[in-house]
Design a protein that fits this description.
heterodimer; A: 3 helices; B: mainly alpha; two-stranded antiparallel sheet; two-stranded antiparallel ribbon; 4 strands
Amino acid sequence: MLETTLLIAFACVSLAFLFSFMRLIKGPDLPDRILALDTLYINAIALLVLLGLYFQSALYFEAALLIAVMGFVATIGLSKYLLRGDIME
Amino acid sequence: MTLTALLNFNLPIVALLPFVGAVFAAWASKINRLASAWVAAFVTILSLAFLAPLMALPFAGETLIQSWQWIPSIGLEFAFRLDGLALLFALLILVIGLLVIIYARYYLSKKDSMGRFFSYFLMFMGSMLGVVLSENLIQLVVFWELTSLTSFLLISYWQHRQDARAGARMALVITGMGGLALLAGVLLLGHVVGSYNLTDVLASGELIQSHELYVPILILILLGVFTKSAQFPFHFWLPHAMAAPTPVSAYLHSATMVKAGIFLLARFFPVLSGSPEWAWLVGGAGLVTLLIGAYAALFQHDMKGLLAYSTISHLGLITLLFGFGTELAAVAAIFHIINHATFKASLFMVAGIIDHETGTRDMRRINGLLKYMPHTAVLAIIASSAMAGVPLLNGFLSKEMFFDQALTASHTSSWAWGIPFLVVIAAVFSVAYSLRFIHDVFFNGEPVNLPKTPHEPPRFMKIPVDLLVVICLAVGIAPMFTVAPILAVAVAGTLQTTPPEYSLAIWHGFNLPLMMSFVALVLGGLVYFYRKRLFEWHESNVAHWDARVIFNAVLGWVNALATVVTRSFDKGSLQHASVWVIATGLLAGFIGFATVSAPLLGERALLPMDAISILVVIVLILASVLTVTLHQKRLVALIMLGVVGLIVSLAFVKFSAPDLALTQLSVEVVTVVLLLLALYFLPQTTPKETSHFRVSRDIVIAVLSGVGVMLFTMAVLSRDFSPISEFFLLNSVPGGGGTNVVNVILVDFRGTDTLGEIAVLALAGLGIYAMLQGMKLPAPDHDSHGRLWNRDLHPEIMQTLTRLLLPLMTMIAIYIFLRGHNLPGGGFIAGLIAAVALIVQYLANGIAWTNDRLKFDMHWVIGLGLLIATATGLVAMGLGYPFLTTTFTYLNWPVVGKFEVASAIAFDLGVFLVVVGATVLSLVELGKLSDQSHKTQSPLKPQQENS
């Protein structure tokens, strides 16, 4: 049961990954791209958690946690750059 | 007990004490100008005191060796030796050094920095002592190089003078080159003998002389000797080194620097001499130098120039004596070393006194000084007479022995009959220039428009000269009661056997050497009398020859050649350098693939591939290609790069490298922040500037090397092989007490490596800090679309959320740090996470807000980290283990349970602190840079200031 659910979830997340990446390529604007990168990070978290469940290992969860905690920093930096140019002032 | 313990290693103390003293001398000058002179004198006396208890040993015929293991695998021992020869030189260096220190204290003017002078001086003295007291030959070469470096500092002491800098550079180039040759010679010698210790080398004379490498060894060592001792054709650096302050000249060119080469000749005399090659090379160079020096000295108008060429000539004389190769010639050489040191040091000091009191050294202007400074005049007259070889003075005795040896040598072969004549010609000139020094300076009418009226110098400035002149007299009148004992041990130390029979008497009866002396004195007087005509002839025929022109030309060619070679490879552009590196790698790889006949792929079965991995890899490939194609839009390329980084860390997770994945994620974030900080000051797009040719060439190289690396990786991965990781996997728990192999390798197995790396990281952080100080860059006030920047400095949602996240991120950092030894994590990753946690606060709240709350200075954090890491290593040493040995134990606490405590965690803490410090310091400094540009540019005020 869980296996089937996981496989479906994998398929969904992979599609999300692909779509986010297409948005990143397509743009058209910088905010779209930044948002796409952020979403890619979120997708990566989902992917890692699913893998953790699938392989029953806690280490995947940690990598996911770390992306969750730090992945947004790049987004903050990029957004601040659009807003002010100077990200640390 | 402590005294006897000290006696076991007082030779290294004698040599190394001046280096320690140099630091104190520099420091003491801050307190008082004269304090550094006192320190220098005190250190010299202390070195003498450490030498004193050992002096009896050489006299008893013993050779003292004190040695410690240093790097035994390359034959390097920390070994010192005291025999008669070493003792003689050590005494010369220390005693004349002490006299020069007293003299220099009065010589240096208020404008000259005493601290700098005496600290250089002591370093030089220590280097010289190291040369003469070394037992290990490699160690000797190290000290030899140190004399070149420290003499460079001394000669260029008046750094504001162009001639001083040029003279010092010339001396360094010539003697440094000789030092390299000497190193090569010593290495060959050690290879032949099988040991680098002098005791072994001195015992294998026959082995060396019969070996096929004898001639190369001889030539290389002689290159070292000749450059140092200013022998033809390397003699020309010495006169240019006269730009040094006179105390330096008095020291370097009488008893020390130039005598180092002579010392080496004496040292290797028992093993290298006796062959025809030795006689031709050493004797030939000595004879030519003797003649050139004596001739050129007469025509110098500068007092110090005269003394410089005379020094060259006397060095040639000593070299020629060694070149004769007989034991008696060696006796004469050693004797002349002592005599030359005494009279030449005093003459240089006299020249300095006259320069000091009259303001010039030009002998055409300083005349008739006898009535202004009678005391100095008497000293100078006695010392010059000793230099000329006048009876009842020390120079006469060694010159007699020299003539005697020249006569003996004239019988040895058919070409040698001319030697006595050439030697007498040199002696004639020697008499003539000594006479000129006396007559031109102290008689010969009145001074010609001197800058100041001359008078006697301070009493203490003359005392060193007094002492040296008294020695000249004492040795000259009663050699048996003064110099005989030390000469005997020095000769024994040189020859390594019982010295031959020789007589030091003043009167040997009417014989040929006495006749030669007489002829030289009379003809020398005549030459000086008819000097006007000689001077005219010299001016029109010889004076325009200047070795410096050739030297500069050669130096120019070498520089030009180096520039051409460098420029043809390095055009100052990264692309160009990468092409060379990658293309070379490609070629090397191709040769490797082409020459090995094994099949490209091994037999290992390929791993199965799943759909998700394929998808992610396709995204990775696309993102990489897009990063390259979009590189002209910098921000978009940066976002693409973010995707690449993310997928690479996912790949690390998939292939079970969680440590790498965690590191990659943190590095990714820091990189984006760093690039964004830099991008603020840079154009948003790059112009198209590369030609089609270059683009196509680069595409070919890139594709080929990409394919090559892929094939190579596949070739490796498809085979079974046993990497060194087996060892670490097996030993991680029993050896390092941790189950996380990566971390155990970092902090334990390769701890020294990591220590080096964090030191580099710390330096990089501090370097960035230093480079950004005071830098001001123009910053844009609008974005790439021409819109003005938003006025909201720190959006509130961002502030609130990131502040909430700080404790969480810190906790994760601490957690990852603590469990690092056993599970993925450790100081490096935790440091990066903590750094990111802090940087987020800087991003969201601004530098001022964060600095107000973050009370530590990152410099201190870096320093503390390095100190902690080093201290863990030192603690291990203190407990008698090698540097950075770790230990661990298992504790059993209630509630917590059994856990492991490793001393490596302290080391890891050091790593953690350095990483945090260096990362935050460099990023925040870059951030401050933009802060500066805002102040100069826009009147925008922050709308709100949350705190």
